[in-house]
Amino acid sequence: MQKITDIKSIKVIQAPLAGISDVVFRGMIRKYSSKCLMTTEMLSSEMICNNPDINKQRILKFEDFEYPLSFQLVGHKIDKMTTAAKIVAPIASMIDINCGCPVKKVVVSGDGSAMMKTPELVCDIIKSIKDSTGLLVSVKCRLGWTAQSENYLEFGAAVEKAGADFITLHARTRSQMYQGTSDWNKIKLLKKELKIPVFANGDIKTIEDAKKCLELTECNGVSIGRGIMGDFTLPYRIEKYINENILIQEPNLEEKIGMLKEHLRQEVELMGEINGIKFMRKFFNYYISSVRNASKYRACLVTLEKEKEILDVLDEILHIHSADES
Ligand SMILES: Cc1cc2nc3c(=O)[nH]c(=O)nc-3n(C[C@H](O)[C@H](O)[C@H](O)COP(=O)(O)O)c2cc1C
Question: pLDDT of 132-177, one tens digit each?
Fold first, then answer.
């Protein structure tokens, strides 16, 4: 199982997407990119400490192809975060500390983006995890709690001093949740301020976005979340651009629908038809956003309960689209 010892070769990180980025999602990315650093969904340090036998936890079962795989821990207690890191260390390529989640049920206990308010605590957690696991430790954070209390520059400098190996900045405040846009100018400021690698996150949905963001921020790489939904080639295409200056075209509709069918097939195989289809409803929009009448098709797709019915609608979309084109 691959440990991360040198992050220079990493240009693209799959940003954690709780409830979205599962084993099938990562497998689809791996079909194209062998280097992309994958991240688990946030894993509660308390939950891991309460169930320390990793072999008995389904949520901690990963396939070889998912590696390199960073384990993202969420929590604010030094002892729980350290113990959880020690428990997962044998199966983790590295550890990422969640200082960005804005969700109420997470921040209410001082976790996620609430950790932006307590940089000293984050520093102690970094030191403790590094000392006790020997793994690389990164931090994923936001600009700050609110626009008035933005502290990403001081926060970044503090975690660098504490030994963080890199930082990923999602350039929104907690108050913004997912509103507005990620302010890449601020990522540029952070990159200028720090010696450790900085990865840019937020609103990178195309290769052109990645190109623009990297030119502006001069970051070491990008972290992509929602942009991968509906286009699993994106990490590979960005790596190709960064490493070889080659711009590969976005997949066309036929290729995207092919990807969607494969994604659906694998989720149904993993979860069964009922749950697999329910899960896939989160994705339809992303795959078919470019087609005429996309919202009408999406509204139809999310009502279907059989894999075959979904495949038929997808074929109809393709058929109508190719008639439009000719
Ligand atoms: C559905 C969803 C789940 C997310 N789950 C996590 C998570 O578990 N840990 C985390 O650090 N960020 C999480 N995020 C934030 C993303 O990793 C990322 O920072 C954010 O979506 C901005 O990047 P993007 O525009 O590339 O999606 C989540 C975002 C979404 C939309």
Answer: 999 999 999 999 999 999 999 999 999 999 999 999 999 999 999 9
13 and 224 Cβ atoms separated by less than 8 Å: yes
CATH code at position 31: 3.20.20.70
Q: Which residues of 199-225 are buried (b: 16+ CB within 10 A; e: fewer)?
A: bbbbbbbebebbbebbeebebbbbbbb
Q: Kindly indicate the confidence band of residue 54, based on its pLDDT and cuts at 50, 70 and 90.
A: confident
**Residue 221 CB–ligand 1 contact under 6 Å:** no
pTM over 0.90: yes
Considering the domain boundaries, does residue 7 fall inside one?
Answer: no
Is residue 274 domain-shared with residue 221, that is, in the same domain?
Answer: no
Tally the domains of the chain: 2
Same domain, 151 and 263: no
Pocket test for ligand 1, best of 69, 70, 170, 203 (most atoms within 8 A of CB): 170
Question: 239 with 259, same domain?
Answer: no
